[in-house]
């Protein structure tokens, strides 16, 4: 059976400038409306992008994941398509996560934005929340916390 040009058992991992198709594992989880959702992930490190993709698809193989490498690309992508959740690395080139989330809020968007950062001190979390983030996940990423965030904002 085909849906959106893809056969069952495959999904598309979309990057700003490339598209990679990969096999997905069967899931017995009832995803309900989560399967129709899209997450925009701003992360400049390609290896971290792959790790995030693997962690999310362990539980949510039908979510659409879109990756950009900096805050400027994030804002441009948000002008092109609607997303249900943003996972935002804080330390990125061109435009960092703090600048990006401030711009998102200045533009009037209330999309949930969750910071992903290697800065794991208590004041770092507070700084992310004050900048406009709705949540915070430190790196290395705790998979249970990541899944909990997705459940909270997309279920």
Measured between the Cα atoms of the first and last residue, the distance is 26 Å
Q: Provide the gyration radius in Å.
A: 15 Å
Structural class: alpha/beta
Strand content: 25-35%
Largest sheet composition? 7 strands, mixed
Poorly predicted regions = 1-31
Overall form = globular
Global mean pLDDT: 81
Walk me through what this model shows.
- By secondary structure, this protein is an alpha/beta fold.
- Helices cover 36% and strands 25% of the residues.
- The protein is built from 5 helices and 9 strands, in the order βββββαβαβαβαβα.
- It has helices at residues 46-59, 71-80, 97-106, 122-131, 143-154, and strands at 2-3, 6-7, 10-15, 19-23, 38-42, 64-68, 85-89, 113-117, 135-138.
- The strands form 2 sheets. Strands 4-3-6-5-7-8-9 form a 7-stranded mixed beta sheet, with helices on both faces.
- Helix 2 (71-80) runs parallel beside helix 3.
- The protein is globular and about 30 Å long.
- The two termini are 26 Å apart.
- 30% of the residues are buried.
Q: Topology, please?
A:
Blueprint: E1 2-3, E2 6-7, E3 10-15, E4 19-23, E5 38-42, H1 46-59, E6 64-68, H2 71-80, E7 85-89, H3 97-106, E8 113-117, H4 122-131, E9 135-138, H5 143-154
Parallel strand pairs: 3-6, 5-6, 5-7, 7-8, 8-9
Antiparallel strand pairs: 1-2, 3-4
Helix pairs in contact: 2-3
């Amino acid at each position: 059976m085909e849906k959106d040009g893809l056969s069952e058992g495959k999904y598309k991992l979309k990057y700003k400038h490339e598209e990679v198709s990969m096999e997905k594992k069967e899931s017995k989880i009832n995803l309900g409306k989560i399967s129709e959702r899209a997450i925009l992930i701003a992360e400049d490190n390609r290896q971290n992008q792959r790790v995030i993709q693997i962690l999310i698809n362990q539980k949510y193989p039908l979510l659409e994941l879109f990756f950009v490498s900096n805050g400027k690309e994030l804002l441009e992508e948000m002008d092109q398509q609607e997303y249900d959740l943003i996972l935002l690395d804080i330390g990125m080139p061109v435009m960092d996560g703090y600048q990006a989330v401030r711009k998102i809020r200045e533009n009037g968007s209330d999309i949930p934005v969750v910071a992903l950062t290697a800065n794991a001190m208590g004041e770092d979390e507070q700084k992310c929340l004050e900048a406009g983030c709705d949540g915070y996940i430190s790196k290395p990423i705790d998979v249970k916390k990541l899944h909990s965030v997705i459940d909270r904002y997309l279920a």
